[in-house]
Amino acid sequence: MSLPRGFSDEVRQQADIVRVASDYLTLKKKGGSHWACCPFHQEKSPSFHVNGARQFFKCFGCGKAGDIFTFVMEIESCSFPEAVRTVAEKMGIPVPAGGGEADVGHDEAERRRSELLHLNQQAVAFFEKSLTESIEGRVALDYLASRGITPETRKAFRLGYAPNGWDGLSSYLRSQGASRQQIETSGLVTLRENGSGFYDRFRGRLMIPITNPQGRVIAFGGRIIGEGEPKYLNSPETAIYTKGNNLFGLYHAREAIRQRGFVILVEGYLDFLVPFQAGVRNIVASLGTALTETQVRLLGRYVRQVVVNFDPDAAGVSATKRSLEMLLQNGFRVNVLTLPDNLDPDEFIQQRGAEGYLAILKTSSRFLDFIVDQSLRVRDVSTPDGKVEAINEILPYLRLVGDRIERAEYVDRIADRLKIESRLIREEFRRAVETRRTQVSELARQASTPVKPAERTLLTLLLADKSLRSIIIPLLKREDFAELRTERIFESLIDFERRGVDPDWSGLSRALEGDEMAQDLLSEFLSGDEALAPVDRDDERGDDAPDDNNGGSGRRADYQTTTPEQRREELRRRALESLHGLRSLKLVERLNALQIEINQAQRADDPSLLISLLQRKIDLAREQQELAKWQPG
Questions:
Q1: Engineered SS bond to 34: which of 27, 137, 227, 402, CB 3.0-4.6 Å?
Q2: Cα 607 from Cα 611, distance rounded (Å)
Q3: Residue 245 in 3-state DSSP?
Q4: Is the same domain home to 62 and 207?
Q5: Could you tell me if residue 96 is inside a domain?
Q6: In this structure, are 462 and 579 located in the same domain?
Q7: SS3 for 538?
């Protein structure tokens, strides 16, 4: 329905932009004006000016300006008629039913939005009645009781039930005068594939209305009661609802958020409802989606400090990391709360009450401590590769620490936790942070990974002898040299062999361009002749002989091999022994890494994963036994 002529002018004359803006922003009075951080762009120092005497706003940062209706249209992403109604409701001005010639362009889109809001209100009433007055609804009431939801909370949030039929809601809406077209575009029904009509989208589900910041119902979430998939079903996007543009519970929580100065961000409906019911009122839920830029901006209207308390499972940890990046990039100060015993907020409060939750809330950690803890938990940081992987995961978040001194302190703390003693790695870490690289360089990885004797012997032999390359290179597997300091040299040799090209210094150096450490190692291997010296096989079992993992280099003799055939055989044998030794070492590394995963699965009490890991360990142990039986031919 259109607004009567002159109504917007009446509202403008009676409205107070300071009062309305304070519903969205924390305003501080300076002189005759009020100031806040702009809700329309990211900033640290307030440049958003609200003038109560002249009833206008102006941001000296991004340039946005206007009157009270412009402000509401911008911040609510709504039309002019909606802004007029919103301001009127906030100021307690009755909104006329309409009549007369409209003073604004009340276009088709606005009409559809009004119709959808009205249909949702009718749907809420239908669901509420189905919950409390139908036999079928008693199952949903029992479910709510089992989750600790009181009748008062149920009524405050207008929870309901969708009957397990095909047309219960749609028939009701038709009886209330809704047209077929209105119902089809409401998101409350699903169109049949054959085009013969539609059926109710929500059936046999507990219904949870989703409101916008003004308290209007714009969509629904439905939780299945009993067996069925999906567990939760949300409304599709409509003219009044866009997924990722709203936060569940914000309408009810916004005053508490302003008063407390921070907001607790959780994932799901019950993770919001149970804490809110228990008295934790500065809380909102992300509606089960990854946090979006729009949701972050919406939060920024009310507060700039967030405690993220998502579920502790793997999906929750991933969602926490994504949310941290989004919040930090928009200038929020962020802490993370991880509840003990793998509990989510709903379960924790059910067991330990609001007092326990508020007490543990005080222990929430800075976001970077959470990232470091998670990174160290899933890696073996006793190994050089584990350290570098941990650093590379932490770096993007560390770069988001704005204060240089705080950032430097974190570098030292993280280096200490990783037990990084190498000055090269520590400086590389610090340099990567300061230059805003996303990863430490390969130089740091290589500097912390020693070249294995078998690795050195094998490459020296392959670089020196063409006949050995034709024998050994076809035997090489990617896993034999993956993640070694010499990985690129092995790759280049394989490529040269495949192309039938002799690997001289010039060609290999070009192939290794950009990898200074690999080029230095290449020079060592090409100029070194230790691996080519003969071995005294008669005494290689003696006390001075190394084990097989050294690549079978053995003790050197004071004699020269008598014939070319014997020498070729000696070098072939030594190359095969080196390859075998390298594989043995790599297998031990794989077993060590697998044991770390097994320990983590035991701590997480994950039987299915543990069984799978133990089977892999058995397979690797068998492979190790087979390697132990190997003898050079």
A1: 27
A2: 6
A3: coil
A4: no
A5: no
A6: yes
A7: helix
In terms of domains, do 206 and 346 share one?
no
Q: How far apart are CA 339 and CA 357, in angstroms?
A: 9
360 or 623, higher pLDDT: 360
Domains of the chain: total: 5
Distances 165 to 131, 199, 203, 500 between C-alpha atoms, Å? 14, 9, 6, 72
How far apart CA 503 and CA 520 sit, in angstroms, is 16
343 and 405 part of one domain: no
* Share above pLDDT 90 across residues of the chain, in percent, rounded to a whole number: 37
Task: Check whether residue 81 and residue 175 sit in a common domain.
Answer: no
Q: Does residue 278 sit in the same domain as residue 173?
A: no
CB burial string 110-129: b at 16+ within 10 A, e below: bebbbbbbebbebbbebbbe
H-run or E-run covering 364: none
How far apart are alpha carbons 162 and 200 in whole angstroms? 9
Location of structure tokens 């249909």: 119
Query: Under a CB-based contact definition with an 8 Å cutoff, are residues 305 and 289 in contact?
Result: no
pLDDT tens digit sequence for 348-389: 999 999 999 999 999 999 999 999 999 888 888 877 778 888
| Domain that includes residue 328, residue range | 250-363
Q: 263-266 and 305-308 as β-strands: parallel, antiparallel, unpaired?
A: parallel
Give residue-wise pLDDT tens across range 248-279: 999 999 889 988 989 999 999 999 999 999 99
The C-alpha atoms of residue 294 and residue 246 are separated, in whole angstroms, by 8
| 577 closest CA partner among 542, 537, 526 | 537
Is there a single domain that holds both residue 353 and residue 486?
no
DSSP β-ladder status, 205-211 and 160-162 = antiparallel
46 inside domain? yes
Q: Quick check: 298 and 214 in contact, CB under 8 A?
A: no
What is the CB-side half-sphere exposure of residue 152 using CA atoms within 13 A? 4
Here the CATH number for the domain that contains residue 287 is 3.40.1360.10
CATH of residue 132's domain is 3.90.980.10
Alpha carbon dihedral 239, 245, 250, 252, in 10-degree steps, equals 10
Write out the DSSP string of 265-331.
EESSHHHHHHHHHTT--SEEE-TTS---HHHHHHHHTT-SEEEE---SSHHHHHHHHHHHHHHHHTT
Q: Is 172 a domain residue?
A: yes
